[in-house]
Amino acid sequence: MKTKLTIAGLSLLSVISFGANAAAHQVTTEQAQNLQSMGSISVSQVGSAPMDMRHELSQKATQEGASAYRITEARSGDTWHATAELYK
């Protein structure tokens, strides 16, 4: 029984880690110089943490087929807004 639970747990972890690796990641201006631009995106939300902003940008960039993004504008307060350049 323990073996089955261990195998099931490891299988779940491998699926989760694959999903994390498939997400677009944030790059610096220097790193972006070596990548091909493919447009920009923006996200906005009311009352959440900066990590939520990064998650939203990463998720939207992945949906657009980008492998990376660079934040070009970010504003925060009661609501936040961020714009990012997408890269292949």
User: What is the annotated CATH architecture?
Assistant: 2-Layer Sandwich
> What percent strand?
25-35%
CATH topology label: Dodecin subunit-like
The parts where pLDDT drops under 50 for at least 5 residues are: 2-20
User: Mind telling me the CATH class?
Assistant: Alpha Beta
- Count, helices: 3
The order of strands across the largest sheet is 1-3-4-2
Given helix and strand content, the structural type is alpha+beta
Estimated helix fraction: 40-55%
The rounded Rg comes to 17 Å
Strand elements, count:
4
Determine the CATH superfamily.
Flavin-binding protein dodecin
What value does the average pLDDT take? 80
Major sheet description? 4 strands, mixed
Provide the domain count: 1
Q: What is the 3D shape?
A: globular
Q: Give the SSE order as H and E letters.
A: HEHEHEE
End-to-end separation in angstroms reads 45 Å
